[in-house]
Amino acid sequence: MGAQDGRRVTSVDVAKRAGVSQSAVSRAFSRTASIAPATREKILRAAAELDYRPNRIPAIMLSGRSGMVGVVVGGLSNPFYASALEHLVCSLRDQGLQVLLVHVDDALTLDSALEQLLGYRIDAVVTALAIGSEVVAQALGTLRIPVICFNSRLTGPWISTVSSNNRAAGVTAAHLLRERGVACPAWLAGPLRNAASVARGEGFREGLGALAAGLVSLQGDDTYESGYEAVSTMLARGVRPDGMFCSNDMMACGAIDALRNRAGLCCPRDVVLLGYDNIPQGAWRAYDLTTFDQGVERLVGAACALLAEALADGAEPVSQSLVIGAELLERGSTGLV
Q: How far is CA 49 from the centre of its chain?
């Protein structure tokens, strides 16, 4: 129940009901403040009885911090990003931070989100989008808040990045295809502005060695449909590679279906094929897709550790680049029985 006179219940009311000081009420609703568990429980019980909701504005005014992190997302049709977002939101919540979700139509770069971010009082930005230009990197730096990106090549003052070891994984993919006796490899790339895809492609070409001279290069946009279309177009031209590395699992699944539906080809008998991301769909029997697991929990854990360091009292601007190794998971599409 609320205050009897109909006014808004305050921390003073809760303090009286619980028989504690007003400052104890404030500590009870802080994740970081020190307070005896029994006292916290008594205060929370009194708050529930009074239907009290703490007002965050005074704390924001005193500390200069909102406790809010802007999480910028795009491309949530890809299960990998949806999984990463869930892990990230839960991890930020465990750090006592609130999430402001900002969705952008351009799922590749943070550039289009800049204007939206400027309109909110946030303490930090975390995003799976890369920074697309030095101009945007400089503009983000002027916000003077920590920015943590996944798979971005550009950093700067206040800006850090956590990346999968994309180039090394590309080399590993090439070596695997060579071990399987592939003579005519193909590379299905994501968008040119996708820094992770570019790095995977660079590593793949490096690992192919002499085979890179005959590499069949295809272009997709990270979606299932683009993988299907790119491979269908290739087959219509009469091109038949015997091995393929796809920049992500969504395109790899589209590629497998195109090989099967358009030409009656199957993996690994006709084409040894692998992807990247380890989405649940890739493990379906129809695909049995060999892939690279980026380790979402490790990526998110590293990002949250950087964020905690950057938000610590008295912290200097943090600018770091962390690389997390990706694990090769071999399945049937490359011949593992």
A: 40
